[in-house]
Amino acid sequence: MVSLAAWRRKALARRTEARLAEVVYNQSTGQGKRGEALVEAGVITQLVRGTGVKGAAAVAKQMQRAAKAALGTVSVADWVWAWVRTEQKKNRLTCAIQRAAPGGAGIPSWRGENSELDEWTAYVTLVRRAVERRLTGNRRLARGKVEEVRQATKGAQLVKRYGTDLLRVALWQLTYEAAVTIDQIETSATVGGQWQDPAWWGGLADAASELAGPVGKVASVVLAWVAARTGSQGSTYVVHWCSGIGAGARRAVREAGMRTIEVDCNRRLLHRSAADSAKVAVVDLAKVAGGWWREAIAVATATKVQDQVAHIGGPPCATFAHSDASNRRGEHSHYNKRDHQAVVKGVRTRPPAHPIGSKHGDEAREADYLAWTMVTMMMSWGRPWMLENPVGYLQFRPYMTVAKIVRTRRRIDYCAYWSDEEANEAAIHKPTYIWTGLRNWKMKGRTGNGRCGWDQGPDCGWEHISLEKVKNPRLRNRHPQSLIAEFLQAAADSGAFANA
Ligand SMILES: [Zn+2]
Q: 10, 151, 384, 480: most buried by Cβ count inside 10 Å?
């Protein structure tokens, strides 16, 4: 028995798809070898957005309605690309570019076709769609929304066969493949929960051989994260998140009796030698939920989470630098990766200027994600923290303008902190913002206020060299040794290391 409502939904989907075909085939630029229609990829992307071709806006609207009615969690884009794939398989159409973005494949169409991916991947994709619709800005899923996700995905065949525990596995997978933070599922790992129990994972993996692979992979990640929270090895670490801190800053940490852990997604950007007591963690933070960052790097360095006693963050600054809006040729210049005209309540907020899936758009979006996650995580960890970024656009991003973050912001110039040795290598002025949880930290440097010639105060005394003239990235990105020493001293004065 098919209900009348279901029949109507299918009829709407069928009509919409016929209209979609009409608009696409009208835009065909010729015939291929097998007599199939040749279609530019641009026609498809414009259709998804409802722009360009005549009639596209109406079709896009109709698809949105039909998608909502008939497909539930499936987006218009997924529907259109799934349709393109079907037409290609039937040799009716050739489209130059296929969308390769995650989530694009394996989406069941309104006809129920879903032959391209294995069931587990299709299920995770379904869960991911349901989760994405309910995420807050910082890719956080409120605990209360998990029930909604469960309701939206309980019809999946896999769940019918093996039960709803699979939802938890799928959610865990999203925490490290799509950096989704799920309230309580993550934070409650230390106080209880079956996912700390290898036997629970084992039972699930034994349910069916097709689950053994994905469940085993998720289990090994989660169990390692949980283990990283137990016990301590006694060394104390200052963690440098995504910043090329330089030898001087590393020395400051060593002189304070600690060691550094340097984190980046790219090994080339990290310090090569561990001889001076630095450890390196190659972790792609953009793929790990913020709630598990500390655990992920503890696992990567074979250390314990409790041993991380202070945090220094330097989110990638290329898309936040003034040079992004400049027309000068040079590194990071000229791209306009951010939209420098967009104004919200009188503030140029500098959002990413290019769409999702474009190189420059994704670079700006990832920098936003890292900066925001870094500052919110550091504020919640209860350890001394500082975040640095050159004076540019970061402070205008909406997540940095909330009062509790603005209150932590200080303005310094790096030149006021260079030692003789550092200044001889490159005395860059480098006006910089510091956000810090240390309220007792009074910026000093060699000028007394951390600034260079500000408010008629003393200047640094060095002859400034412009950043463009400094080609060596090590010299461009490093932190002054005395700045890190000042930070660690203020942390010690606040009593933060008393029990460390
Ligand atoms: Zn100066």
A: 480
